[in-house]
């Protein structure tokens, strides 16, 4: 985000070398931060042994306790950080908080490592581009938004990144907006994603209505209450769980280009090639997959929702394959 701010605000005054050094360096340093968070710093434990205090050491300790006792208290929490209380209205309290666990570690490694390579490739591919600083500013902004999406500890913080990647997708797909077709492709992607995002918001509101929370750990605890699930079903009934899961899945369909919200993706190739590599092949289209994985306990509460996810996924794969049979390259 800092790299995006520098390039978008002051990029015109900086040389091309400075612009891409800032852009590539910021993503590269983010990758170093991810690796550092996984490995940690060396410290001496009670037994006098030197251990590394990062996520990997915590996870090994958790699994050791799981194997020794047959269970562990709660779920593996990972590393967490609360910046401040963002919104507090009545019973609604939303913290600007981030969590780094095993699922997040996989996604952040993918985003920052692949992102660094694509930023490096872009320095040559876009070397003659007049709006050089704007391009790298948008690319940095997208990477920052994607990291917020996967690091958020609750649904509202995830939604900040969710909307951020949608905005950056619009800016990058329509980057060469002087071409009317390219500009239309950017608008198409923006509008289709807003349809999915509206359903996502409805799903989030339904979860809050049913559970009184939007934090991932609290939602998972609500889903694991056996008494609630046996007596009335999670979220006050399986129908509510089904509705929330399907609404969230519609949001995922928009981001991951699944039926029926897939229509924006073919036109999205109007953007520069590195944009397609970063957004439409490696990261943004996986954000819907990440959201479903993060909220897997919601979908597991409803057999209907799981059937919908499987059915839409299979239909999308088949439809894309049949389209490829008839596709011609001009």
Q: How much of the sequence is in beta strands?
A: 5-15%
| Category from helices, strands and their pairing | mainly alpha
Along the chain, the helix and strand elements come as: HHEEHEEHHHHHHHHHHHH
Radius of gyration from the alpha-carbon trace, in angstroms: 21 Å
* Share in helix: 55-70%
Low-pLDDT stretches are 226-233
Molecular shape: globular
The overall pLDDT, averaged over residues, is 85
Work out the helix count.
Answer: 15
Number of strands: 4
The biggest sheet amounts to: 2 strands, antiparallel
Order the strands across the largest sheet as they lie in space: 1-2
Instruction: Quote the distance from N terminus to C terminus.
Output: 39 Å
Briefly characterize the structure.
By secondary structure, the protein is mostly helical.
Structure description:
This protein is mostly helical. It contains 15 helices and 4 strands. The chain has helices at 2-10, 16-39, 55-69, 102-125, 132-151, 155-173, 180-211, 216-223, 226-231, 238-256, 264-267, 273-282, 284-294, 296-300, 303-326, and strands spanning 42-44, 50-52, 79-89, 92-100. The strands form 2 sheets. A two-stranded antiparallel sheet has the order 1-2. The chain has a two-stranded antiparallel sheet with strand order 3-4. The chain is globular. The chain starts with a helix and ends with a helix. Mean pLDDT is 85; it is low at 226-233.
Question: Which features does this protein show?
Answer:
mainly alpha, 15 helices, about 325 residues
Secondary structure topology:
Layout: H1 2-10, H2 16-39, E1 42-44, E2 50-52, H3 55-69, E3 79-89, E4 92-100, H4 102-125, H5 132-151, H6 155-173, H7 180-211, H8 216-223, H9 226-231, H10 238-256, H11 264-267, H12 273-282, H13 284-294, H14 296-300, H15 303-326
Antiparallel strand pairs: 1-2, 3-4
